[in-house]
Design goal:
- There is one protein chain.
- A hairpin with a 6-residue loop joins strand 5 and strand 6.
- The protein has 400 residues and is of the alpha+beta class.
- It has four domains: 97 residues, Carboxypeptidase-like, regulatory domain (Immunoglobulin-like, Sandwich), CATH 2.60.40; 97 residues; 129 residues, no CATH class; 34 residues, no CATH class.
- The N terminus is likely disordered.
- It is built from eight helices and 23 strands.
- The radius of gyration is 23 Å and the shape is globular.
- Helix 6 packs antiparallel against helix 7.
């Protein structure tokens, strides 16, 4: 085992050496007077790369892996700055100009009912945003007071927002995650959770033994993930890494009303206190959206799905209808109502990718991160929450 680890280290060493030579640097100044802004938070979103601007506004991010990142700069009293950066093999310079923030006063209502509603919404938010797995039990939101919720009773949706970093300690993976949450929405009928925002990962302090536990937990989260899949796709190692891809054909279930009709009926009958009628439509909502599912027998090869682009380091994946992704090195016994499983197939971790753009395509970088055309995930990947989230620059400690 010791020899194998040494070989792995030697194999990764050239990559690490390359990453050490790549930097993003520049200065943070005010747009109007061009005066330096010190102690601004400068980071690459969804990564572990972050720093603070110096007295002269200068900053430097080093040891970067090639890929496409979003540079984020935040400072008290200024609007957030974001810019997409393509990192190759040459240093990148980005001069940042910040504009003053327009202060908006938020109406505050304090009542016993409002407090009860906030607590109920907060518990749902934690489940939908952080997760409900074993890792989630070891995650703590350090500043929950930063969250504002809106629950739309008729639409059965929950929205959340915050005007500053939401700080979460993930003691399962050993990260402190600082999240600028934007556009969080949980749809209780369609069972779709969407959100955006910028995030920074910081290593939590821990003993040598604790860090070893974290390394294993991080590898467990990585293997079989969407990040692992996209990296395996562009390196043409799908089968070697445990992925098997099929084309999925399915049709909408005619016995299940649309999500919009279900929302209206459930909300209406609840308002009228017609519990039996409301429960009837809740049962319909729990039916699968699809029927007549069919998988192709022959798995896809990488070249059938992968396309190069004019931007170095950016790849495209395309597939008509639905892409059925199995990870054969893990099992998932969860019963996903919309995921078809052939009777003769073991309960492998299974996800379905739906490409939401026209034509059906998504773009991703060498880090295995989708940078444009975010697809919809069902099945195993749809359950991935912040409790399982890794920075884009993550490299597994051991080969599996």
């Amino acid at each position: 085992m010791r020899f194998l680890r040494l070989l792995l280290f030697c194999f990764l060493l050239p990559v690490a050496a390359l990453a050490q030579d790549i930097t993003i640097s520049g200065k943070v100044v005010t747009k109007a007077s061009k005066s330096p802004v010190q102690r601004a938070s400068v980071f690459l979103s969804n990564s572990s790369f972050g720093t603070i601007s110096g007295p002269d506004g200068s900053y430097e991010l080093t040891r970067l892996r090639p890929g496409q990142y979003t540079l984020v700069v935040t400072a008290v009293g200024f609007e957030d700055f974001t810019k997409k950066i393509q990192v190759g093999e040459e240093p990148v310079t980005v001069e940042v100009e910040l504009e003053p923030k327009v202060i908006q006063l938020r109406e505050v209502i304090i009542s016993t009912t409002a407090k009860a509603d906030w607590r109920r919404n907060f518990e749902q938010f934690k489940k939908d945003f952080i997760g409900a797995d074993a890792n989630a039990k070891l995650c703590t939101i350090l500043n929950p007071e930063a969250l504002y919720f809106t629950y739309h009773k008729r639409a059965l949706t929950l929205e959340a927002e915050t005007d500053r970093f939401l700080v979460i300690d993930n003691l399962a993976l050993g990260y402190r995650v600082k999240f600028l949450l934007k556009g969080f929405k949980s749809d209780g009928i369609a069972e779709i959770i969407t959100y955006g925002g910028e995030r920074l990962f910081e290593e939590l302090p821990g003993s040598k033994a604790q860090k070893k536990i974290w390394d294993k937990a991080r590898d467990d989260s990585y293997y079989g993930s969407a990040m692992h899949f996209y990296r395996s796709l562009y390196t043409d190692k799908l089968a070697e890494e445990g992925f098997e891809l099929h084309h999925l054909t399915r049709y909408l279930n005619p016995d299940r009303p649309t999500d919009e009709v279900l929302r209206q009926r459930i909300s209406r009958f609840k308002d009228l206190r017609k519990i039996d009628s409301a429960n009837h439509y809740i049962e319909l909502a729990n039916m699968s959206k699809y029927y007549m599912d069919k998988l192709t027998q022959t798995p896809y090869a990488s070249f059938e799905l992968l396309r190069t682009t004019q931007t170095p380091g950016i790849f495209a994946i395309t597939c008509p209808n639905y892409l059925y992704v199995m990870y054969t090195k893990k099992r998932d016994e969860t019963n996903y109502k919309d995921i078809f499983r052939p009777l003769d197939m073991p309960n492998y971790e299974t996800s379905v990718i739906t490409f939401t753009s026209t034509p059906p395509v998504a773009y991703f970088d060498k880090n295995g991160i989708v940078v444009n055309g975010e697809p919809l995930y069902e099945g195993t990947w749809s359950q991935s929450r912040l409790s399982q989230l890794l920075p884009v620059d993550y490299v597994p400690t051991e080969k599996r």
